[in-house]
UniProtKB/TrEMBL annotation:
Gene Ontology biological-process entries: prosthetic group biosynthetic process
InterPro entries registered for this protein in UniProt: CitG
Species in which this protein is naturally found: Streptomyces paludis
A Gene Ontology molecular function term of the record: triphosphoribosyl-dephospho-CoA synthase activity
Protein name: triphosphoribosyl-dephospho-CoA synthase
Record-linked Pfam families: CitG (PF01874)
Region ranges (Disordered): 58-80
UniProt keyword annotations, A-Z: ATP-binding, Nucleotide-binding, Transferase
EC number: 2.4.2.52
TM spans (from-to): none
Reaction equations catalysed: 3'-dephospho-CoA + ATP = 2'-(5''-triphospho-alpha-D-ribosyl)-3'-dephospho-CoA + adenine
Length: 294
C-alpha cells in the first residue's frame, strides 16, 4: 500500500503519544518506567507504527487528499469500504504486535482508538485536532462486515453490565479523550508540570470510564474501586499537590496489590496525547521519523 510522508508523520505522532503514556510515572496500577521490562513496553508501542501508517494511507486514498488538496469536507460520511479496510489492518496489526512481543500483546486495545483517530486525521486533513473525535465517530459508526462474529470478552462484558465499551466510546465521539484534553489544559493553566498534568488527565478518564477490561477481570466492585480512587486523588488536589500525590501513591499500591489494571484509560490517554501533539502546528512540518526509525 503506497504511503507518503504525511502518513508516516501521523503514525509517528501516535507512537510518540503511546511512548509518552508509557513513560508517565507513577501510573496507578499500570505499566510505567518502574517496570523491569520497560524496554518491551516501548518495543510493543513501536511495533504498531507500520499498521497505523497503513491506516493513514488507506484513509488518504479514500479521500484525504494531498498537500494543497484538502480532501473530504468535515461531516462527510466516510466510505463504507474504508471501514472494512481499517478493520482488517487493525486486526493484522494486533497479531503482528503479539508476534513481536513473544505472544504478549502489551498494547492490546490501543489500535482501536489510535487507528480511528489517525485515519480520521488522514481522511479530513483540514479538520482541527480537537474535532477529530467527531470524524472518528463517523468511521466507528459504519459496520465492518469482516469483523469476527464471535463477541470479544469486552463486548460480552459490555452487554452484561450495560457499559459502553470501546465500540460505544468511539461511536460517542470519544468523550473521555475530550475530557482528558480539557483536563490537560486546566492543569497546565493552573501551573502544573507536564507529568502531573498528564496524570490528572489520566485520572479524569479513570473517574468515569466503564472499563470493560476491569469489569471482565474484577466485576463492578473492581471498577468502582478504580473510579473512586481516581476521584479521591483529584479531590485531594491532583497529582501535583502534596495530598494528591500521597493519594496517588496509595491508589497505585492498592491497585497493584489487587491486580487491577485500568488499561482502557491508558489507551484513551494516549489518544488524547496524540491529538495534543497534532495541536502543535509545527509538528507536521518539522517532525523527524524518530519513533518509526528507533
Amino acid at each position: 500500500m503506497p504511503m507518503n510522508r504525511e502518513d508516516e508523520v501521523l503514525a509517528e505522532a501516535a507512537i510518540d503519544a503511546l511512548l509518552a503514556e508509557a513513560e508517565l510515572t507513577p501510573k496507578p496500577g499500570l505499566p510505567d518506567r518502574r517496570e523491569a521490562d520497560f524496554g518491551a513496553l516501548r518495543w510493543s508501542a513501536r511495533s504498531l507504527a507500520p499498521g497505523l501508517a497503513a491506516m493513514a494511507a488507506a484513509a488518504r486514498r479514500s479521500g484525504g487528499g494531498t498537500p494543497g488538496h484538502p480532501g473530504r469536507t468535515a461531516g462527510d460520511t466516510p466510505p463504507r469500504e474504508l471501514r472494512r479496510e481499517l478493520g482488517a489492518i487493525g486486526r493484522h496489526t494486533e497479531r503482528t504486535m503479539a508476534r513481536a512481543n513473544t505472544g504478549t500483546a502489551l498494547h492490546h486495545g490501543a489500535v482501536w482508538p489510535l487507528g480511528l483517530l489517525v485515519a480520521a486525521a488522514a481522511l479530513e486533513p483540514a479538520t482541527a485536532p480537537d474535532q477529530l473525535p467527531a470524524a472518528a465517530r463517523r468511521l466507528a459508526a459504519l459496520p465492518d462486515p469482516s469483523a469476527p462474529r464471535v463477541p470479544s470478552p469486552g463486548a460480552t462484558v459490555a452487554s452484561r453490565y450495560g457499559a459502553a465499551g470501546a465500540r460505544g466510546e468511539a461511536r460517542a465521539g470519544f468523550p473521555h479523550i475530550r475530557r482528558a484534553l480539557t483536563a490537560l489544559g486546566t492543569a497546565r493553566s493552573a501551573g502544573a508540570r507536564e507529568p502531573e498534568a498528564r496524570l490528572d488527565a489520566l485520572l479524569t478518564i479513570m473517574c468515569t470510564l466503564q472499563d470493560t477490561g476491569l469489569l471482565h477481570a474484577a466485576g463492578p466492585h473492581g471498577l468502582r474501586q478504580v473510579q473512586n480512587g481516581a476521584h479521591a486523588v483529584l479531590e485531594a488536589g491532583g497529582a501535583g499537590s502534596d495530598a494528591g500525590g500521597r493519594a496517588l501513591r496509595d491508589l497505585d499500591s492498592t491497585l497493584r496489590a489487587d491486580g487491577l489494571r485500568p488499561r482502557g484509560s491508558a489507551h484513551l490517554l494516549a489518544g488524547a496525547l496524540f491529538l495534543d501533539i497534532l495541536r502543535d502546528r509545527t509538528y507536521a512540518t518539522t517532525a523527524l521519523p524518530t519513533a518509526l526509525a528507533a
